[in-house]
Input
Amino acid sequence: MTKMLSGRHILVVEDEMMVLFLIEGILEDLGCTSVATAATVEQALAMIGTQTFDAAMLDSNLNGVRSDRVAEALDARGVPFFFSTGYSDLAKKEGYRERHVLKKPFQPEGVEASFRRVLSVA
Output
């Protein structure tokens, strides 16, 4: 893996701790400078309101609650993001059909490719 996230501040919105630990390890391997994590819509919205992010990885289902409001907040601030989900159609809400979706379970290469895509990094 390359250090393509070196100097980047990333938001990860994920409600499953084991998946979150996996993602944090992958981001560390990619050279990520700072990872902020949120497990609920409310936590994510609070962080988006007070911090600046270079990109985000957004689970589309947080304990049965859709993360649409988080996607809207990121979009309003121009923060590039992608969805991660184990559900086939959960991230395909109207207005977000063009957003990249990383299917769970994923491999480290999939996470790297997804961040490359949203950050337009070659």
